[in-house]
């Protein structure tokens, strides 16, 4: 049963650890700046939104992982868009490994994708059976708009990032995007 479910959702087991050699983290004072920076940098640079390690966490719970070779261009792009990160940190110290935001769990024919505190659960056909977590004021609204629908049928202007406005909507959208990948 689990084998069929893995094939259905096309889950991939990572066979190698991602190296942090040549990587850095951008630490932000607030979530708004981190989300704005992600929108500006994605497509131009190879970046990934992560949770910064507890030892260096300041301001908000989001950071951007990037290739150190791109730092000058990234700094220039952020400055041009009036975004002032708290700091840029090299990840050559392996104790500073960033935490993955997205986790996937399979239970009894369902797949739950978690990002931060937000969770979205799908059945094997891709129907959204539950949304939970957060505590932000837009979570009940997002749940009403998405629960019971098939994730494959949801248009771009109906995604959590389009409907919500809080960190919960942002992290739910990350989980939503990953869940959508799994059912394709």
Describe the structure.
By secondary structure, the chain is α+β, with helices and mostly antiparallel strands. The chain folds into two domains: 23-96, 2-Layer Sandwich (Alpha-Beta Plaits); 102-183. Helix content is 32%, strand content 22%. It is built from six helices and eight strands. It has helices at residues 2-9, 31-41, 71-80, 139-146, 160-163, 167-183; strands at 23-27, 47-50, 63-67, 87-90, 102-107, 110-115, 118-122, 128-132. The strands form two sheets. The chain has a four-stranded antiparallel β-sheet with strand order 2-3-1-4, covered by helices on one side. β6 (110-115) and β7 form a beta hairpin. It is globular. 30% of the residues are buried. Residues 11-16 have low confidence and may be disordered.
Descriptive terms for the model:
alpha+beta; 184 residues; 4-stranded antiparallel sheet; 32% helix; 2 domains; 22% strand; Alpha-Beta Plaits
Short description:
The chain has 184 residues and is α+β, with helices and mostly antiparallel strands. It has helices spanning 2-9, 31-41, 71-80, 139-146, 160-163, 167-183; strands at residues 23-27, 47-50, 63-67, 87-90, 102-107, 110-115, 118-122, 128-132. The chain is built from six helices and eight strands; from the N terminus they run αβαββαβββββααα.
Shape: globular
Mean of the pLDDT scores?
85
Count of distinct strands: 8
Structural class by sheet pairing and helices: alpha+beta
Biggest sheet, strands in spatial order?
A: 2-3-1-4
Topology pattern, helix = H, strand = E: HEHEEHEEEEEHHH
Which percent band covers the strand fraction? 15-25%
Q: How many domain regions?
A: 2
Taking the alpha carbons of the first and last residues, their distance comes to 19 Å
Stretches where pLDDT is under 50 for at least 5 consecutive residues are: 11-16
Oligomer: single chain
Count of helical segments? 6
| Radius of gyration, taken over Cα atoms and rounded to an integer in Å | 17 Å
What fraction, in percent, of the residue positions are helical? 25-40%
Q: Characterize the main sheet.
A: 4 strands, antiparallel
